[in-house]
Each structure stands twice: as structure tokens, then as C-alpha cells.
Amino acid sequence: MKKNKIWLVVLALSVVYVFWSGYIAISLAVKTIPPLIMNGSRFVASGMILFFIAVISGQKLPSKKEIINASIAGILLFFGGTGLVAMAMTKVSSSISAIAISTVPVWAVLIIGFTGKWPNKYEWTGVAAGICGIVLLNFENEMQANASGAILLILASVLWAGGSVVAATFKMPEGIMGNAVAMLAGGIVNYIAAVFLGEKMIGMPSAASLAGISYLIIFSGVIGFSAYIWLFKNTSPALATSYAYVNPIGAILIGVGVAGEKISYHGLLALVAILVAVVLVAYGQKKGFNKNKV
């Protein structure tokens, strides 16, 4: 790898590691903005920016099939995943949310299994460790006190994993155009769900909430996803998805250190178990990839 490309990889990884630990920003945003309205605004804005960038950079417009596929992925990811997380975070802290969502690679392995590619022994061990982590996490005081928040976080993890599988297996628009379409579709469905659930703005959002949603639009959305797409194209999938090891730790450090959140030993043990699970799943996938190479 050329020296200048190494620096680009380091920069892109730093962006994904730091900017995608945005749980504290979600926590701030939903304090005075209803969660689905906030999430819809976030992804419609990010999607429009990415769509504009894609068009002026000469990317072709997607086909009808690509739009449908990207919309399915976007609804699962940006409504089912982050929308439910935003709802949960009106009840549960950013630290606990980050630990719960870090189970996504474990759920993804199980979902892929239903397509006929069942996990190997390393991945099954990772699944078992992930289940142990989920059980431990549910002993956390916050999760016990907010059963609806716990259910939303687990469901969000499953739906994000499903959306990731769809995005990886269905024919999607090329480059950032795929992210733009997915974000716009997910954002619109957030708005529809907000109307259905009766969400309404009551007064002006606070400065903290506006700062939180601005961060999510620009840094987590436009910059973070663009860096992630670049990594996926220019490095290995294992390196590109290594954010799953780092982001929960960053979210906890920010939540505890900056926002004064508290986490018990159950939560810490759950984090360790889930990180072990993610490492085992990633290792199992690498072994399976190397075995199938010709």
C-alpha cells in the first residue's frame, strides 16, 4: 500500500471511529425534539446533501430496481435501526444503547444463516458470547427499569443487521448515491411513523438539541458514511467494519466522562462479552472467506 493511501486509510478510520460514536449526540437531540421527527430530519438532510454531491460528481442516477433495493435497506437501517434507537434513548442512556447496538454483527450472522450460509464454529461461539452479553446487559438497572427501551434496542439491532445484509446482497446504486437514496427513504418513513404515533414539536428545540442533530447530519451522516464507503472500497471488509469494536468503548467514555452517565459492572461485563462475540464473528468470517478462495 502506498504511503499516501495509508494516511487516507488512517484518516478514514479515525473519522468512522470518532464520528460514529454519536450516541451522546442522539441523546442531546431527543431531549427537545421528538425522536422520529429528529431521526427523519437527520436522514432527509444527510440524504439530500449526499444526493447533491453524487449528482455534481457525475454519478449516474439509479435504476428503479436499485431505488427499491436501497429504499428497503434504508427503511431497515435508518428507521428500524436508528429510529428505534432514538426512541429508546428517551428512556435509556447513550452508553447502554451503544453496548446493545454493538450486537449487530452477531444478529447479521444469524440472519445470513437463513439464506443457507450458516455460521461456522467460530461464528457460533461468537453468537453464544453475544447472547451472554445481551443477557448480562438486561441485568443493567436502566434496562430493567425501562423494559420498552430494552425491547426497542434489541429490535433496532436486529433490524440494523437485516438492513446491512440487504445492502450487502441486493443490487444497490453505486457509491454515495446508494447511501443518499437509502437515507432519504428511511428519513421519509421516520416522518410517516412520527405522524402515525402522534409526535409533535412543542416549542423551539434547545441549543443542545440543535447541536446534536447538526452533528448527526454532518459528521455521522455525510462525513462518517462517506468515509465508511471509501474504506469498504479501498480496504478489507474486516478493517472497514472494525468500528464495531471501537464505537461502543468511545460512546461509553464520552457518556460517562462528558455526560455523567453511570454504568454498572453488569454493563461492563456485557460490553466485554459482546466485544469478544464481534471479534469471534469477524474471525470466523475471515476463515470462511479464506477457505472459499480459489
Describe it for me?
By secondary structure, the protein is mainly alpha-helical. The protein has one domain (21-292). It has 14 helices and no strands. α3 (35-56) runs antiparallel to α10 and α4 runs antiparallel to α9. The protein is globular, with a radius of gyration of 18 Å. The relative contact order is 0.22.
Task: Looking at this protein, list some descriptive labels.
78% helix; single chain; mainly alpha; 14 helices; 294 residues; disordered C terminus
Low-confidence residue ranges: 289-294
| Total domain units | 1
Number of strands: 0
Tell me the radius of gyration.
18 Å
Brief digest:
With 294 residues, the chain is mainly α. It is built from 14 helices and no strands.
Which secondary structure elements does this structure contain, and how are they paired or packed?
Elements: H1 3-19, H2 23-29, H3 35-56, H4 64-88, H5 94-101, H6 104-113, H7 121-137, H8 141-145, H9 147-169, H10 176-196, H11 207-234, H12 237-240, H13 243-257, H14 265-292
